Structure formats: C-alpha cells, structure tokens
Amino acid sequence: LNAYTAVAKTSLKTVPYRPKFQLDYIGNTTVGVSVSNVGTGLVGGVNALFSDILSNNQLFAGIALNGEIYDFGGQVAYFNQKRRVGWGVSLSHIPYRSGGVGLGLDSLNVGDTTVQVDNYALDILRTFEDQVRLFSFLPISQTRRVELSGSYARYGFRIDRFNNYYFQGFKIAEKREKLPAPDGYDLWNINTAFVEDNSFFGIASPMKGHRYRYEVGKVGGAFNFYTLLADFRKYIYLKPVSLAARAYYYGRYGTDVDQGRISP
Q1: Which residues of 83-108 are buried (b: 16+ CB within 10 A; e: fewer)?
Q2: Considering only CA atoms, which of 154, 151, 150, 152 is closest in space to residue 128?
Q3: What DSSP line would sit under 5-72, residue for residue?
C-alpha cells in the first residue's frame, strides 16, 4: 500500500506569510536568596531567545539579580538578518559592584554614656551603565565580514556604607548609610572592524584554523581618545590534541588615554 495519499488541490489554501516571534530557547533560569551581615538579597536570572520561522528576525532578552534591587540588570536586543546587510539594536542596564573595608575610631552613644568604639566600615560602590547600541555587519564571504557599531552610555554611581561598631572585641551595633557619590558621565563610541573566522570547533573550543579581528574606534564624551585592536588566533590540530597561539594588541591614543579604565 502507498503510505502517502494525494491531497486534493481543493483542500489547499494559500495564505500570506506573516512572521511571528516564537520562543526558541530559554536557559540559565535560577532563583535563590542570599543572607549575610550586609543584608539579605535575591539571586537569579533568565535568558530567552525568540525568532520567526526563518530566523530573519531574532529577539534576545535577559535579566539577572545578584543582591539588592540596585543590583538588577537586564538587556534586550533585536537582530535583523533578512538581507545581506544585517543590523540590530540593543538596550541594557548593567550594575557593577565593588567595595572596600576601612578601620577607624568612632564614638557611640550607649544609654547615657558615650564610648569609643572601633568601626569596621564596608563601602559598597555600584556603577550603573545604561547603554543603547546600534550594530551592523556586511558579509564578504563565508568566513569574512565587515562590522560597524556605535553606542551611547550613561554611567552613574551609588555608595552605601555598612558601619560595624565593636567595643572590646565585641560587636555592639551596626548602621547603614548612603554616602555622596561621584557625578555621572556620558560616553559614546564608534567602531569598525574587519573579521575573519575559518576555525573548526571541537566539543568545547576551536581545534583547527584561525580567527582574527582588526578594529579601530573613537570614544567621546567625558573622555576623548581613539582605540586600536588587533587580535589574531591560530589553531593547529595534532591528533589527538590541538595547539593554540594568540597575538593580541590593544592601544588607546589621544588626550584622555590615562583617564579611567575602559575595556575593549
């Protein structure tokens, strides 16, 4: 017997193609609670990828929380690759947290008495990056492409101090306070790059071929300088192992090259 039967043409109906976003992938779903002597916080995050049936349009969204509500971060990005020149846009809010500990003498009122105490102060500095980025690329071949991107970012700060008061080696009190923070600043940058990647991946890393990226950029706003990046990687497959070598250069040129530290 024929496993397939002919479908009558009268039962077929032509409808226009309407791309709709559907969930392709969801991962890194975690949730938890952290407790410490500097407060209680939530820990968790989730990433999700959406696309249409032909993957001409892709939408990525991710959120994460590691501590208090001030430590909430997230990003959403849209990518269009319907035509040869692909382009996209992304919006993000990312908090960076750092800290330091200091020891000093302080006075504390205990009842009707003022006593001298040791203050172990923990300062938590949060740097907030709010950024919008536009990017585009033009494939030249299956392994080479030209990229162009630009972004604008606003950086803000918050400082919280956790005072821990000790008297004769015993902790007797604690207090949290918000300290004056530095003024925020703006940065914008434009980058263009030539990229090639003809490497072949194994289970966890490239095993054969090479990859390189040559990029020039301009940073403006609170700082003003140019950037130059050259990154070349070579992978040599020697059964059953592979050797890897890398040559890397990143430089900044201009009037503000020594102001701040900005990663490539």
Answers
A1: eeebbbebebeebeeeeeeeeeeeeb
A2: 154
A3: -PPPGGG----------EEEEEEEEEEEEEEETTEEEEEEEEEEEEE-TTSSEEEEEEEEEEESGGGE
Tens digit of each residue's pLDDT (9 = 90 or more) over 51-104: 998 889 999 999 988 888 889 999 999 999 999 999 999 999 999 999 899 988
**Which H helix or E strand runs over 134?**
strand 113-139
Whether 123 and 82 have beta carbons less than 8 Å apart is answered as no
Contacts 24+ apart (CB under 8 A), 25-32: 25/49, 28/62
* Per-residue model confidence as pLDDT tens digits over 157-171: 999 999 999 988 888
CB atoms under 10 Å from CB of 195, counted, come to 17
d(CA 146, CA 151): 17
CB contact at 8 A, 64 and 73? yes
Residues 6+ apart with CB under 8 A from 254: 224, 225, 226
Distance CA 252, CA 258 (A): 9
Instruction: State both tokens at 223.
Output: 């700082």
Q: Do 255 and 225 touch, CB atoms closer than 8 A? A: yes
DSSP one-letter code for 182: P
